[in-house]
Amino acid sequence: MSMAATENPELWAFLKTLRAGEMLSGQISSVERFGVFVALDDGPEHPVFPGVGFITIPELSWRHVETASDVVQVGRRVTCEFLQFDTTNGEARLSLRATQPDPFQMFADITAVGQTLQGRVTKLVPFGVFVRLTDDIEGLVHLQELSWTPVEDPETVVRVGDKPRQLWIDLCKSRNN
To answer: What is the per-residue pLDDT across 22-63, written as a single tens digit (0 to 9) for each?
Structure first.
């Protein structure tokens, strides 16, 4: 446990009461390149950081985030799910993303195995291409699925911005895996 938490009985007592999945509210107190600090409504002040709560960049949104300020700003009120407490820094790790519907699950719920989908190529990689299917969903089409004949370079078949005629999506039959 960090010295900040062990030397601060109020902070330690607060962190010990938190349970995974619990919803906590607070105000964004600092936006950093590595995440954001949250001053929790019911939490004590942190002796070192500008808030007892912390949200890492991946936990801010289901979408790809370049910088935390793309999602939140200092002063914004948030309600987050408590994930765990970080014993190294003496802070509550939070998720804003967990409070939002999962766009992947919503997509899987309305998409059938083997269904033909339309999309636009967004990126070429050595093993295939990424295709934007919705605002929130990109899929990967492997090289072997780009053409009936073997393909070594995706650029020989498609280019970024192309809208291929058909894309076959093979969703897992068991969505719990």
So the answer is: 999 999 999 999 999 999 999 898 888 888 999 999 999 998
The answer to whether 96 touches 61, Cβ cutoff 8 Å, is: yes
Q: Structural domains in the chain?
A: 3-99 (2.40.50.140), 103-168 (2.40.50.140)
* Cβ-proximal residues to 109 (8 Å cutoff; 6+ apart), any chain: none
SS3 label, residue 169: coil
Convert 38-69 to b/e letters by CB count within 10 Å (16 or more is b): bbbeebbebeebbbbbbbebebbbbeebeebe
pTM for this entry? 0.74
Cα 99 from chain centroid (whole Å): 11
- Measured distance CA(51)–CA(131) in Å, rounded: 39
Q: At residue 12, what is the residue type?
A: W
Pairwise CA distance, residues 90 & 34, whole Å: 17
Quick one: tokens of 110? 């309305």
Q: Which residues pair with 124 in a beta bridge?
A: 129
pLDDT surpassing 50 at residue 155? yes
Query: Residue 78: beta bridge partners?
Result: 26
Which pLDDT value is given to residue 100?
94
